[in-house]
Every structure is written in structure tokens, then in C-alpha cells.
Amino acid sequence: MLSNGTGQNKSRREYGFGGSIVEKTKTVSIIIPTLNAEGYLPPLIHALKTQTHVPEEILIVDSESTDQTCAIAKQEQIRVHKVKRSTFDHGGTRNLAAGLTTGDYIFFLSQDALPVNEHYIEEMVKSLEQDQVVMTSARQIARVTAPPIEKLTRRFNYPADSFVRTKADIARLGIKAYFFSDVCSAYRREFFEEMGGFESPILTNEDMLMASRAFGHGYAIGYCAEAKVYHSHKYTLTQQYKRNFDVSVFLQTHKDEIESGSSTGEGIRMVLYIEKELLKKGRIGSMIWCVFDSGAKFLGNRAGKKFASMSQETILKKTSNPGYWKKKFSDQK
Fold it and tell me: At how many degrees (to 10) do helices 264-280 and 284-304 cross?
């Protein structure tokens, strides 16, 4: 049975999945946004139930799934809060979910992110309890079935060593200093509430903007390499274009808060790393695909910089988040 997150620590430790008894000083709430997640939920729920630090509560925020997502959650005694798919917002929906939970630490997990072992929550909590760290994210490892380029991209972006970053690191790292992912993240609730939650509505990268605001208030963000999840995608060229269009629009929109200059240099460095590793393995076909993949990202990024001069019709063709734009255009009428 799940704890309701109330009472003293001594009584709270008696709750959790499977009757586990683990001494804890802070409580953990896990939030999982879902959409047709029936293929992901069973192993994910099992992984969370068998953690060394058992979460006090798990909340699924479902966007009108048409499969067995909600039925699976109910069978596993996981609380579900339903939202309309048309109203989903990367910031607003997560804010809503956070307000429905009580844990001292708020964890966000994507439905397709699977903890590698039973120490995921334990390691994330350790990272979050470091001095001045108010938010931390985990290491993402590509699934075995992921394409070679995706595996190398994850390896480049998610190193094997943990670190803590502050505003002082921006001059050295540029945009990389803000790198953070709500695919697998955790926040101190008191910080989250101090910031008023995520920006909402927001097109994308609510996590990156929160990192910027943490820096602005003198806090630090963490990266916990010891906490690992399997997570990867196989994007088409069109999907890469649209994703990078949105990221570019986001950076243009929030350029006063994210003082990092161009992201092109970091992108080039990653491409060179990937091509070098592919060459070592003789993956010529993948090297060619990497060129096209990188080109789609570059073109999407370049187009996003000019979004302010585009028609509504053009933007809707280029974005991966048409719901955000439709609401924005509607509100402007």
C-alpha cells in the first residue's frame, strides 16, 4: 500500500511497495506523464517498486490514452490523474502533477525511461542532498536496440562521471552548463515551489529554463551518473528537424535568461565525436546517415531562429508541438 506522505518519518518508513522498511529522512514522489504507455508501464512500475529507497507515492498523469495504460496502473494500485490531450503542456501539466503530490523530493520520469537497477532513487537522493543542489538529473543509456548514432549521442551527452554546476560554469561551458533533462530528474520541493514551478505554457525545454533560474538564484544543479536509466529514440529526419526547430524557438524566446550564446559549436563537437567513433567501427552507412541527421538538426535550428517572421501555417508545419502553437494563436485573437 502507498503512503499518503503525511506523518513522521518513523511511521512513513513502514509504508511503500511490498512492505519494504527503509529508513528515510526525506519522502519521494514519482510523477510519470503517460500517453499510450502500456508497453512501458509494467517493467517501469516493477523497477520503482523494488528500489532500495521506495517512493512514498507514484502519480501517473495520463493524456487520454486509448490503450491499457490506466487499467495497468489501477491494477498496480498506482494513482492516475487524467488530463485532456489537447491541454497537455510540458510545464503546466507537470506543475499540476507536482501540486497533487506531497513528497519532499519531486521526481519526474518519462514513460519510456527505465531505471537500470534498484539504486536509482537512492543515488538521485544522494545527488540532491549535496550542498546548494536543488535539482538533479540522471544518466541516460541507450537501449540495446537503439541505432549506433543514438547510442553515441547518449554517450556524448551523458558521461560516466557525476558533476555539479553553477552560474560560474556558464563562461566555460556555454549552453552545456544548462543541460538538464526531465526524462529522469528530481527537484527539491521547496525550491520548485519557490520558483513557482515550471514556466507555463512553454513550447519545450521547461527543464533547461528551470536550470537557468536555479543559477540566477545562486543554486546549483546536479548530474548523477550513478543513477542510470535506459532511454533512447529512433527519430526520422523530419522529427529531428521539428524537434530542433522547437528548441531554437525556445532559445530565441528565452535568450535573456539563457546567456550562453550559440549552440552550434557544441553540436559540431558532438558530430565530430560520433563520426570518429563510427569510423573506428567501420560503420560507413551510419556515418552517411549521421550527415543527414545532423543536417536536419541544423536546418531545424536555423529555421527556428526566424520563427517571428513566419506565418502561423508555416510554424504549424515545422513544429513538433502544434498544440502549443494553436493555443498561442487562439489566445492572440
Answer: 170
Does a cis peptide bond (omega within 30 degrees of 0) precede residue 201? yes
Rounded to an integer, what is the distance from CA 7 to the centroid of its chain?
30
Dump pLDDT digits (tens) for 287-296.
999 999 999 9
3-state secondary structure of 152: helix
Rounded Cα distance, 166 and 215, in Å: 6
26 Cβ contact partners less than 8 Å away, ≥ 6 residues apart: 103, 104, 105, 125, 129
Exposed, middle or buried, 313 (CB in 10 Å: 0-12/13-18/19+)?
exposed
Nearest to 56 by CA among 99, 7, 119: 7
Q: If you average pLDDT over residues 1-12, what whole number do you get?
A: 33
pTM here?
0.90
Residue 119 in grid coordinates:
539504486
- What ranges do the domains of the chain cover? 9-230, 237-332
Q: Are 186 and 124 in contact (CB under 8 A)?
A: yes
Looking at domain 9-230, its CATH class is alpha beta
